[in-house]
Amino acid sequence: MGRVFVLEGRRLFPLLFLLMLLVSLSIYDNLRHQTEVPVFSGEEGEIRYEVIDRGKIEDRLQIRVLYEADDLVRVADEFHLELPDYPFQPAQQIGVLVVNGKFKKAELVPLKESLQVKVVLEKARNTYDLVMFDNTELQEVEWYWVFADKKGNVFSQMPGSEMMSTEEEQVEEEIEEETEVVK
Question: Residues 84, 90, 94, CA angle at the centre, nearest 5°?
């Protein structure tokens, strides 16, 4: 005789519930922002950079430029961020922390007597980007920062080479003071 296969509805409810959870989780994962950190390949006219960390926080658009390893610790404390353990090398790198904004690109704009490092940002609430720039192209010239959106609206302008030379002068002054104390 033939066998009869009977499905009872009450036995299918747990399977349907699990299937519904799986589908909703898949949809949720596709809607969430990707956590992969892109590494810049380097196009002509742009500075090499690497996005070190990306996360979410609350506040208005704020920009911090990091010239020393202590600056990295200071801004992490200031914004209550848990940044990854990254080997920041102030001699070869300059860091930029953008709070409530996303980093889009950076380019060198040559001017008559100086160089402009134009950083294009996009406002994005509750996010931050920590970017490290390769400063080898900036060590021999006078330059300054310009932070703007893609339409050209400037958020902030900051000194660049002046800040680096000031820090080098402070180190030299400290060394001179130490040698005077020893004498």
Answer: 75
Q: What is the 3-state secondary structure (H, E, C) of the chain?
A: CCCCCCCCHHHHHHHHHHHHHHHHHHHHHHHCCCCCCCECCCCCCECCEEEEEEECCCCCCEEEEECCHHHHHHHHHHCCCCCCCCCCCCCCEEEEEEEEEEEEEEEEEECCCCEEEEEEEEEEEEEEEEEEEECHHHCCCCEEEEEECCCCCEEEEEECHHHHHHHHHHHHHHHHHHHHHHC
The answer to whether 103 and 129 have CB atoms below 8 angstroms apart is: yes
State how beta strands 93-110 and 62-66 pair: antiparallel
pLDDT tier for residue 164 given thresholds of 50, 70 and 90: low
> How high does pLDDT run on average in the chain?
79
Average of per-residue pLDDT across 133-158: 86
